[in-house]
Amino acid sequence: MNEAAMDPSNLLCHLEDILDSDPHIDEVGFIHPMQFAAFNEEGHSGSGPQLTDEITRKPVRDSSSHTFFWHNKHKLGISTIVLVPLYRAAKDAFLDAYKRYRMLRDSQLKKDETLENNALTCLPSLLDTMEKEVMRHSKALLLLSCDFGTAWNARKLIVSKKLLSPMFTDELLLSALVLSYSPKSERAWSHRRWVIKMIAGNGANIQEVVERESELVKTLAEVRNNVKMFNVLGIITWIPKFWYFQTADSPRS
Description:
Elements: H1 8-21, E1 27-31, H2 33-44, E2 69-72, E3 75-79, H3 83-110, H4 117-144, H5 149-162, H6 165-181, H7 186-201, H8 207-221, E4 231-232, E5 235-236, H9 242-248
Parallel strand pairs: 1-3
Antiparallel strand pairs: 2-3, 4-5
């Protein structure tokens, strides 16, 4: 397998590009590599559905012709073979971005005398750039590790600073996506409640949000055994993902 294709930073960039291209993804699945291969063979034969990117309408593959991501009709599949390196890359990228964001934010609040005037003038634009990085990396991380509390808190910090309606909508979409495969995630439910309170506190019409919540709860009630199922070529391909992350950070013997 091409080492460049398996490079964790490349994998993370690819995942984040997919997420950016389709903010309305409503389901995430983790798929065994053999099932990716079977699907691609079906697609190449000219029969059956195609694994395509929503924007380019081309198969989503890396340069080594191995498929790690599937994206079609607001559904996202991730190969189990890349879960561990992808999680580590997302965690490292988020923590680094969040650290730099907090340093810049503290400098702005304290008007750090060690900074030159030009640097202070540039701080707002730098902060805006760092906020986008934190939001981008935290979204990928939370799809891989939904109870990563620091990532949820970082998003709260930035959203509460901006108080923009589109950002509230994004947070509702993200929490709903997490709950689609982890309906008992306390962090996701807590974040969702916080967003709704923020919306209500800003004088918005809460009726539509309440109706959406009722629909979400109804949908989640249909999920049995706390496992969301993802159907590819008629094969149930969802698998428990917690094992991958237990092994990702566990000491090696």
